[in-house]
Every structure is written in C-alpha cells, then in structure tokens.
C-alpha cells in the first residue's frame, strides 16, 4: 500500500480537527498555519487545502488563503529599509523577517479576528498581492488586492518562517545570534506576537520537516530549473546558492526548535517528516490540552 502524501496527510488532519473546533460552538475564525522550508511544498499544499475546504464547506463557511510573502513591503519602502540598514546584508531585499509591512498585516488580521472587512466603501476583506517579477525580480506589491466576502471562518496562512520563535541573547545562542541576525531576530518578535503566539488566535499547525535543511538548496535549484524551462528566465545554480545562503542563518537558529516544539497550532499540530523527494516518512499529531 503506497504511503500517504503530504497533501493526503494534511487533508486528514484538517478534516478531523476543523469539525471538532466548530462543533464546540466556536465562532472565532480558525487559522491554519502552514510552515516549511523553501521548496518543501508548503505553497502547493496550502493551495490544495484551500480548494479542498472551499469545496467541503461550500455555502457553510468562508475560507481564505494568504501567504506571508504577500505582505512584503512595497518596492519603494524596501529600498528605504535597505538604506536604513545598509550594513545588514540580510535586509537587502525582500525575504526575511523585517521586510514585511506590519501595518498591513496587522490590519488584515484584525479584520479577520473581528469578523469584518478592512475597507471603508463596503464590508469586504482586501488581501494584498505581491508580484515577485517586478523590478527585474526585486518585486513589488500589486496595485489590486484580492477581495473577499466576510466574515472569514477559516484562513490558511503559509510561509517559510511561520512558527519561528525569536530568541533572547544568551550563551546558548551566541554562535548564531550575532551580527546581521541581531536585527532580524529583534523584528521576528512582532510576527510571533501577532500570529502563532497570539493567545487570541485559535489555530491548527502543519509543519513540513526536511530530513536535512540542506535540501533547500536542491529544492530551490529544481524550482529555478523549472522556471527557466517554462519562461527562459531564472537564476543560475550559483545565484540560487547565494539566494538561499541569505536565509540560512534563520534556518540554523530557529528551524529545529520549530520542528521539535510541535506547537505551531494552538489546538493541534501536524508534523510531517519529508525526504529529498518530498515523500512523507513520518507523521505525528500533537494536541494541545
């Protein structure tokens, strides 16, 4: 009998815990946080989860899908940030904690949590959209936003550092929490407080755990090769390595704690061990009592 895929495990998980949540009479929105290294399949999984839940709860519950990537700063604001932190190579361009528009993120999450829209003209939830191809790959926010009816009952939020927990300076972290990472770590506190560590948010967590974080280099290279074959444009293998190198200090400092903690979701967390082929070799669910 073939092993279940990432998507199949994820469907089984949400189909168990979503009904349990709403059967208690809960009226607050339920978040589904999906976290995994770049290239692990989190975006693909999140999209199929969204389609699955829309079909399952058609006419009964409103479902939304967004990515932390859609909340990146505008191109102009990123240039300002890069100038302000000109000596910090980790903040030169989008990607890491600190390169997102926290005001827009806070506005959207407040609207979801309060079961209302976030625009004045009509009661709609407007979600930002980000185009990574603009400005020769530097990216910029799209002029149009995704418009959704409210209230939102279930919202899927995915991202490569969802669930990372900022750490305090101390002897156990001195080797990693230094230099450019000090600024990134300080900014990460805001993300956790707003989302996965927010006591007012009810959530399920799905964590994709690579058997080795070095897989990110292979996965991102594969993605770029696919992009080149389709569009004729993309990064060279050397450029991919340099790109991933910029993210690697975060993986080194936070990723293992996320996986071992098994507490991304405030209700329950599914942790899937995956190999280089993205095949699931372990599955564990931890419920928070």
From TrEMBL:
<dbReference type="GO" id="GO:0005634">
    <property type="term" value="C:nucleus"/>
</dbReference>
<keyword id="KW-0539">Nucleus</keyword>
<dbReference type="GO" id="GO:0005524">
    <property type="term" value="F:ATP binding"/>
</dbReference>
<keyword id="KW-0418">Kinase</keyword>
<dbReference type="InterPro" id="IPR027417">
    <property type="entry name" value="P-loop_NTPase"/>
</dbReference>
<keyword id="KW-0067">ATP-binding</keyword>
<comment type="similarity">
    <text>Belongs to the GLYK kinase family.</text>
</comment>
<keyword id="KW-0963">Cytoplasm</keyword>
<keyword id="KW-0547">Nucleotide-binding</keyword>
<keyword id="KW-0808">Transferase</keyword>
<dbReference type="GO" id="GO:0016301">
    <property type="term" value="F:kinase activity"/>
</dbReference>
<protein>
    <recommendedName>
        <fullName>Phosphoribulokinase/uridine kinase domain-containing protein</fullName>
    </recommendedName>
</protein>
<dbReference type="GO" id="GO:0005737">
    <property type="term" value="C:cytoplasm"/>
</dbReference>
């Amino acid at each position: 009998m073939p092993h279940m895929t990432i998507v199949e495990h994820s469907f089984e998980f949400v189909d168990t815990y979503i009904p349990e949540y709403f059967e208690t009479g809960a009226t607050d929105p339920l978040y589904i946080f999906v976290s995994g290294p770049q290239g692990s399949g989190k975006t693909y999984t999140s999209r199929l989860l969204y389609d699955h839940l829309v079909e399952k709860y058609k006419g009964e519950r409103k479902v939304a899908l967004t990515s932390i990537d859609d909340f990146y700063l505008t191109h102009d604001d990123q240039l300002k940030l890069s100038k302000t932190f000109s000596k910090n190579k980790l903040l030169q361009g989008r990607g890491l904690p600190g390169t997102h528009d926290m005001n827009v993120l806070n506005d959207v999450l407040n609207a979801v949590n309060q079961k209302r829209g976030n625009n004045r003209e009509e009661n709609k939830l407007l979600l930002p959209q980000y185009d990574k191809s603009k400005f020769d790959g530097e990216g910029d926010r799209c002029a149009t936003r995704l418009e959704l009816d409210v209230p939102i009952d279930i919202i899927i939020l995915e991202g490569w550092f969802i669930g990372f927990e900022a750490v305090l300076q101390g002897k156990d972290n001195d080797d990693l929490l230094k230099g450019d990472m000090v600024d990134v770590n300080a900014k990460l506190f805001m993300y956790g407080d707003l989302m996965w560590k927010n006591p007012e948010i009810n959530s399920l967590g799905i964590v994709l755990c690579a058997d080795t974080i070095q897989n990110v280099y292979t996965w991102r290279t594969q993605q770029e090769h696919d992009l080149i074959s389709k569009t004729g444009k993309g990064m060279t293998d050397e450029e991919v390595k340099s790109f991933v190198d910029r993210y690697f200090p975060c993986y080194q400092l936070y990723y293992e704690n996320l996986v071992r903690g098994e507490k991304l979701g405030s209700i329950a967390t599914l942790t899937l061990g995956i190999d280089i082929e993205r095949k699931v070799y372990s599955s564990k669910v931890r419920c928070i009592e």
